[in-house]
Model the fold of this input.
Amino acid sequence: DQQVKQNSPSLSVQEGRISILNCDYTNSMFDYFLWYKKYPAEGPTFLISISSIKDKNEDGRFTVFLNKSAKHLSLHIVPSQPGDSAVYFCAASAGGAQKLVFGQGTRLTINP
Amino acid sequence: GAVVSQHPSWVICKSGTSVKIECRSLDFQATTMFWYRQFPKQSLMLMATSNEGSKATYEQGVEKDKFLINHASLTLSTLTVTSAHPEDSSFYICSASPETGLNTIYFGEGSWLTVV
Done:
């Protein structure tokens, strides 16, 4: 039972354009969501997060949107840069627990 | 900043042997650490919560006798894969946090295990 889903295994975007990565969840107990960037054979690095009491959080080029009624969140990267090429994971937490439930990841490729 | 380190990064072992993976918090103490496993092109799946000074809490479907977790100090948790089989080959990652918040979770570099 995949509680956090990233239905797009890959995404290719032109440099300078906007990258939109999507994530859906099923567990209504999740109240905190995080996005991580991961390179092969490395651990994930934290990018941005959002609490369920908000619908948007912005940090530089990264913005996360949360639609609780649709149980959907998205990560926007604008403008996209070649260094953004990596696998992006969304993760969810319930009740402040530091154990996370991850989606399957989306491989983002930024083309020059 | 806070760093979590894993060792070894790569390990190859023969079927039936045991292999130990270490997870260290380098500049902070962590009463709780988490162990995840990632199969190729799949998600990170939580295996267990490592608790300093007490027994680990395992997720459903994870064999506690096969994946032994020891959290003997506030800076070290170890995962021992016992009687390893080829299907145990995977990428194992730990995480820890110096605080109770969620934005301060740090992941180790991961350990690639190949069982031949």
Chain A touches chain B at residues 2, 4, 9, 32, 34, 36, 41-46, 49, 89, 93, 96, 98-105 (CB under 8 Å). The first strand of chain A starts at residue 4 and ends at 5. The two ends of chain A are 38 Å apart (CA to CA). The mean pLDDT of chain A is 95.
